[in-house]
Amino acid sequence: MRPFLRYISSSSHRRSEQSPSETPIASAAEAKGKEKVIADAASSTKTAKGDDTLPLLQRPLGVREKPKAKTKSWADTKEKFIDQDKRMEERTHLAREATRGYFYDLNATRRHGGKTWIAPKVMIREDKALYFPDIQGTALAGSEDKVHTTNLLQNKVSVVALLTTRISEIQTAQFLEPTLQAFSSNPLFQFVQVNLQDNMLKSFLVSLFASGIRKKVPEPLWPTYMISSQNMEYLRQPLGIANKHVGYVYLVDPKLKIRWAACADPKSEEVSALKTCTTVLLERLSKQQDTQVESTPESAPPQETPPQSTAP
Hints:
Elements: H1 11-17, H2 22-51, H3 74-82, H4 84-98, H5 104-108, E1 136-139, E2 146-148, H6 149-152, E3 157-163, H7 166-183, E4 189-196, H8 200-208, H9 210-216, E5 225-228, E6 248-252, E7 258-263, H10 268-295
Parallel strand pairs: 3-4, 4-5
Antiparallel strand pairs: 1-2, 1-5, 3-6, 6-7
């Protein structure tokens, strides 16, 4: 009879025979790995929170060349294709637009209501500020002649609101309420509204129902309310228009320079900043006009001519 052999696994003994220094090393490596996971999670959480914080406006808005009140002609279009710098600018614009989806602006309104930057608390310096571009359109007052913002904004402190949707109208109204209450009666101040509809069908409908807009807009504001179908694609980046569905507000000085800007839903500090900056510009313009009046020499009174003698 073959004897019964009992086999005992030695794996447990081998584990127990391992040097005692191996266990602390393994546990230290495991703890280090856990710490790294926790650190990565904290870092990602911090990054996500940082992404939710909107940045301040980082650059002056506007165009570098002083605008002119003229309708774009064939000569201007021809020059655009001949000029090397303008062709490169065109290529850069097309490349940027090619990366944007059709519903990009609409989807962007889900974050912060379409707000992409926060307005500065102080004005942009005059020597750093850029010009507000020329936009042409039809005044709500009913005149068939084209109106240009270049002519409209000269020699006054202007708050310009770009409107595209009903949401943008509500947003700009919230921005401007305190400023309009304070300065609407000031002759050096004006409120300019530009209803931008670069879609031809929508532009036609807005023009068709202009009488309905007149019922909503107070009559004193009709001369400074424009309906425009101008293509703004090449002005979106200079004006900081990251989302065409929200409203944009610009404070423009008498020299056509953008000194302050804001977008989308207003914050309380932005509303206060607009009023403060407008006050500063109006005070400067008023002092400048007073200085010009004082420096103008008074005209001398007309000298009386002695009566001529009628005696022979």
